Amino acid sequence: MTAIPMFPLGSVLFPFTPLPLRVFEPRYLTMVGRLLDEDDPEFGVVLIERGHEVGGGDRRTSIGTMARLVSVSAGAEVLTAVAVGTDRFTVEQWLDDDPYPRADVTPLPRLEWDDALTPLEKEAEAIVRRTLARAPETRWDADTELADEPLAAAWQLAAIAPLGEYDRYTLLQSTTAGALLRQIIDLTLEAELLWSAE
To answer: d(Cα 44, Cα 46) in Å, to the nearest integer?
Structure first.
């Protein structure tokens, strides 16, 4: 178990995906400042199940993703940072939130890729891109590029699929690459049906 700084958010972070952040709360400004002194600045990101991002008093999920800080720029009152998701973890215990949220975490094993999954990944990608093209107001474009490495591309598909945060959290909990791809397909088709009905 390792105690790490934590950044609870109203959204899920997946491995191999970018995380843009606007940091303005004093406790997170302190956290980023300390991270910048480290050789490998990483922090944990978990989804806030209930409550608010600002001020604490929230309820947080138990599975999250490590984020590696790749750039920070300072504005007048806000730090703009970009991090990239790396490995998943389970929160064993939350520590004191002073001076910022921290938790003891245990790394989760990385998913393993099998080339037999390639047709399933192609199907998942086609469904996600088709749904993105039809979806109302999404963060990602239907032609968003994915990594060449297949496991990274699978996680990136999970990130760009036009789903709600609880569905995205379901994907984050996947225990195999095949299960991840099948759930991306099922949840995206469900979302598409809902939009069609509306």
So the answer is: 7
